[in-house]
């Protein structure tokens, strides 16, 4: 029976691969380009292997209120503020994808660049954690930043820094950063033990900070409320505890996660998964860690709702809201790929993920990834890429230009279309053409998941023809397709 099950699983993967042949996209190229987008967003002293020729050192004098070195990290979007909350959320999702789909990055020779992307963020978070109960969550003032259009290398405005501490806590920010550092620590366990241990140490202390001093970070960092408001912290606390358990296997963290899961009523089905709403991610992670029905059923309810009930555009894109349309869809299918990996509705969720990602890559007639495909966005809302090569000046004339951005912001995922698949490739239309760190995270990780499945299908396709004489049976059908509640694993 075990042998038959193994063969059936290989057939399912081979079938997934064959079904993808009709419309093929180069996942290798998408992964490479997405990582280049993150490199284009780097702040501080750039490394010697910088692959973005129009970027150089910037904001190298970013400092804390007592002169602490806060250089490094990532600019959030087309502007030059460093928002810790979304940077941490981005890092957690990227690291989760690296843990799940390492083979995808290795196959496309991007594993070292992938490691560099999360290390860049983690080293910045460690700098920001200046004492046990003190963490800098933002550098730059958005109101000042919005008065400048140009290159980060040419910035001359004041860049104040903002922090949380015992008197002005931020459980959501500290909790999300703890989760990010826990995830990074796992990735680096066998690669750089000292760095991994440092990440884990800071993750533990930030978790203590988050649980002992409760509050919403935007009450301490006032400017953040306008752009990245946090509506609760129970999901981040549970998320942080679950990631610490995954990193340490210390039972206390799992007990904390399960207690808070009930306390904050996280078993209810959410409608989305993004920087402000981690509930579905908590459900998926606890399902993976425990295999308990309470969590597996919760994440299945979430994915089933989005697959079968949630609103979609006429061309089939999952539609949550206009801001970050594509990000929402990609984040959801990344979680559903995680559910599929532990045997929940594997065939259906993987096909769902492929449909959504392929829409983003061009199935609807438009690529939404800058530099990828034949019809990609030419005017992303991004100041630095709108500038000509130095020493040409760059100011608001570049913003108003009707020409394509002179610098191609390779790999950036734009916000995307409206509920009727309408899209405007105009720089000033940020609701369609904004780019941000968190937009790319779930998308990149979902693409890595599809590449991972492609690699598995390739391997299993060969095994089907050689393993003890068993041949691929083209008439075999997946029995899970007969019922919406069955599993493949």
TrEMBL record:
<dbReference type="InterPro" id="IPR008928">
    <property type="entry name" value="6-hairpin_glycosidase_sf"/>
</dbReference>
<feature type="active site">
    <location>
        <position position="425"/>
    </location>
</feature>
<keyword id="KW-0732">Signal</keyword>
<dbReference type="Pfam" id="PF00759">
    <property type="entry name" value="Glyco_hydro_9"/>
</dbReference>
<protein>
    <recommendedName>
        <fullName>Endoglucanase</fullName>
        <ecNumber>3.2.1.4</ecNumber>
    </recommendedName>
</protein>
<keyword id="KW-0326">Glycosidase</keyword>
<feature type="active site">
    <location>
        <position position="434"/>
    </location>
</feature>
<dbReference type="InterPro" id="IPR001701">
    <property type="entry name" value="Glyco_hydro_9"/>
</dbReference>
<keyword id="KW-0378">Hydrolase</keyword>
<comment type="similarity">
    <text>Belongs to the glycosyl hydrolase 9 (cellulase E) family.</text>
</comment>
<keyword id="KW-0119">Carbohydrate metabolism</keyword>
<keyword id="KW-0136">Cellulose degradation</keyword>
<keyword id="KW-0624">Polysaccharide degradation</keyword>
<dbReference type="InterPro" id="IPR012341">
    <property type="entry name" value="6hp_glycosidase-like_sf"/>
</dbReference>
<feature type="domain" description="Glycoside hydrolase family 9">
    <location>
        <begin position="27"/>
        <end position="446"/>
    </location>
</feature>
<feature type="signal peptide">
    <location>
        <begin position="1"/>
        <end position="24"/>
    </location>
</feature>
<dbReference type="GO" id="GO:0030245">
    <property type="term" value="P:cellulose catabolic process"/>
</dbReference>
<dbReference type="InterPro" id="IPR033126">
    <property type="entry name" value="Glyco_hydro_9_Asp/Glu_AS"/>
</dbReference>
<dbReference type="GO" id="GO:0008810">
    <property type="term" value="F:cellulase activity"/>
</dbReference>
